[in-house]
Amino acid sequence: MIREAVVQALRLLWAHRMRSLLTTFGLVWGTASVIFLVGWGEGARLTMEDGFFRAGRNMGEVWAGKVGEDFSPAVDRRFLWFGMQDVEALRQRARLPDLVGAEAWEMLPATFGQRALNLDVRGMDPEAVAIRGVGVTAGRTLSAADVQRRRRVALLGEKARRRLLGPEGRLGDRIRIAGKPFEVIGFLEPVGTQLSRDRMEIDDQVWVPITTVQLNWPSWWTDDAVVTKVIYRIPDPRLLDASKLEVRAILADQLGVDSDDTEAVGIWSALDRLNQLPTQQSRGMLFILAATTLLVGGIGVLNMMLDAVHERRPEIGVRLAVGARRRDIIAQFFVETATICGLGGIVGAILGVGACLLLAHLPMPDLVPIPVLRPGIVVTALVVLAVVGVASGVVPAWRAARVDPALTLRMD
Amino acid sequence: MTSPAARTAAPVIDLEGLHKSYDTGGAQVHALRGIDLRIDRGELVSVMGPSGSGKTTLMEIVGCLSEPTQGRFLLNGRDVRGIEPDALAAVRGEEIGFVFQSFNLLPRLSVAENVELPLSYRGVSRRERRERALEALARVGLAHRGRHRPSEISGGERQRAAVARALVNEPSLLLADEPTGNLDTATGDEILALLFATHAEGNTVVIVTHDPHIGKRAPRRLTLRDGLLDGDGSP
Predict the structure, then answer these.
(1) B51 CA to chain A: closest CA distance, Å?
(2) How many CB atoms lie within 10 A of CB A163?
C-alpha cells in the first residue's frame, strides 16, 4: 500500500511538473534555510568565542588597583601591586584555577639594524605562556630556565617580527630592547584580530622572561619584583564566578585589603563579555526565521494537496467503492504528502549542506562567521520539516477520507 | 464474511420497506418510499425507470455506498445496516463488483493495476494480485492490454477493463450502473454480451439502465417510479 502511494505521489508530481516545482520550492528553500541559518548562527557563536579566546581560553585576568573608597578614608587610598610572592600564594591556595601565571609589561623602544619602534614587551612565566595558548611557528618557547636565569631572550609576535626584523629576520638575530641586547629564540604563531585584548594585540608583542623585565626595568616605587597582571585558567567556564570569589579572597588577603574590595583586586574575563552577547537570542531568531520559511513552504504543499483531493474525488470514490477503508484513503494521501515533503527535504538538505560546505571552502576575511555543519542541525531541519509535513498532510487526508463515494460516483 | 451455506440459502438481496430520504437545504427529498425486493443468487435483473425514479439511490444502498433511512436490507442474509464504515468497505470489497457508466478507471494506473485495485485493499500479495488481474483481463478478452494506460485504449476496452475489475474479487453481486451509456451501440452490445456471459457463469448481475433494449433482454425487469417499485416481472 505504502509503495503504491509513494509511486502514486511521484506520478502526481510528474504529471504536474511545474506546479510541483513551484510548490516544493518552498520546502526546499525552507529546509536549506534552516540548515544554513542555524549553521551560520552556530558559526557566528564559534567565531565570537574564537575571537574572545585568542588571548587565552577560559582565562581570568587580575590586576591590583587602589583601596576602594568604601573600604578606606578617601585620603588613604593606597596604590597596590602584586609581587611574585602573591602569585605563589595563589598557586598554593587556590583550588578552582588549574593554572596561574604572572605577567610584567613595559612599553619599550626596540631596535634591529636601522629599524626602531616601540613595542609591547611582556615578561612572562611559563605558566602565563601556557594560559595564553599561543604556540611558536619557529624556534622554541620560553622555558623555566630562561625565567630562572633571567636570560635576555625574546619571542616575537607575527607583526612585531615583520615590523622589526623585516623579511630577512631569522632566529638567532640580536635585537635591542631599551638598549639591551636580546636573542630572538622563537616566533609566535599569528593570532589575528582579537575581540578582547589588553594594550597591544599578541601579534604586536614581544615576550621575554618575566624575571628579565623585573631585573632590567624595576619599578621606581618599590624594590619588589612587580607583577602587572596575574592570569589564571579555569577548567570549566561555569566556574568563573566562583573562581573570582576565591582568587579575590586570596589576593586581598595577601594585600591586606577587604575581600569584597573589587577596586583593590580587579578581575576581568572575556567570558563575561562573551556571555553578555545575545548569541543565544540571535540563534533563536535565525531558527524562527528559517522555520517560518519552511512553514510557508508547508502551506504551499497543504494548498496543493487540498487541490489534489478536490480534483481526485472521483478516484477516491472508486477506491472506496472497491473496498478501500477510510484509513486506507487517509494513509494514501498522507504518504503522498510525506513523499512530496521528503523529496523537498532531501533536495533542501543537499542545498543547505552544499551552501555550508561551499562557504567553508571559500577564502574569508578573519572573524567572518562560516556556517557550521553538525548532524544535529540537519536533524533539526528534518524534524521541523517532518512537523510541517505532518501538519500539511493531516487536513487533506482528513478531507479525502470524508469524500462520500455515493455522491462522487452518482451519474444521474 | 458470509459462509458458503448462507450464500446459497439466503437471497443475495433482500429488501423490506426500504426508505431513503435526503435533506437538501431544508427540503426533504424522498428518493425511495418503501421498496420490497428479493433477488436470488444467479439472477440477472435489469432496473429501469425515468430519471429521478430512485434507481441510482437503490443501487447505492444495494452497493453499500449509502445507508437506508428506514427499512431492512440483508445482503446474502446479513443485515448491513449500522455496520461501521470500515467494515462496510470490507463488505463492498468482498461481495460487490461495480461497473459504472463512465468506467471510472484511475487514469494514472495501468489497466492491470486498475483491475488489481480491489485486491490491494484485501491484503492480497502483489504476485497473486497480478496473476488474478491478468486472469480477469483474459476473461474479458483484454489480456494484451494490461500494461496500457486507460487513456491508451478504446471506450469499449475501458468498460471491459472495468468489468474485469468488478469480477476480480469474485463478488456475489455485480452492479452495473448504465454500463453502455457512454458507448456506441455495437460496443454497448459487446459489453452487454460480456455481462450476460458473466451471468451465464452463475453470477448475480443487476443492471441499472435507461435502455429498453437491455430491459427487454434481461430475464427479470424491475421498474421504478417515484421511489416505488412499479413493475417486477419478465419483460
Answers:
(1) 7
(2) 18
Model pTM? 0.75
- Type of residue found at B179: P
Residues of A in contact with B94 (CB under 8 A): 323
B112 CA to chain A: closest CA distance, Å?
14
The domain locations on chain B are 42-68+84-233
Fold of B42-68+84-233: Rossmann fold (3.40.50)
Count interface pairs A-B at CB distance under 8 A: 75
Nearest CA in chain A to B22: A407
Say if CB A273 and CB A52 are below 8 A apart.
yes
Mean pLDDT, chain A cut into blocks of 10 residues (412 residues total): 77 83 89 91 89 91 89 74 96 96 95 93 96 94 96 96 90 95 96 86 96 94 91 95 96 92 92 86 88 91 90 91 91 88 92 92 86 88 90 92 86 40
**Strand pairing class (B96-99; B173-177):** parallel
Span A49-107, pLDDT tens digits = 888 998 889 999 999 998 887 887 656 678 899 999 999 999 999 999 999 999 999 99
Residues of B in contact with A402 (CB under 8 A): none
Run of H or E including B71: strand B70-75
Asked if residues A324 and A4 have their Cβ atoms less than 8 Å apart, the reply is no
A177: which residues sit within 8 A by CB, 6+ positions away? A108, A109, A110, A119, A121, A154, A206, A208
Nearest beta carbon to residue A411 from set B94, B106, B177: B177
List, for residues B64-94, the tens digit of each pLDDT value.
998 899 999 999 999 988 888 888 899 999 9
Q: Which residues of B touch A11 (CB under 8 A)?
A: 108
| Integer Cα distance of B193 and A234 in angstroms | 94
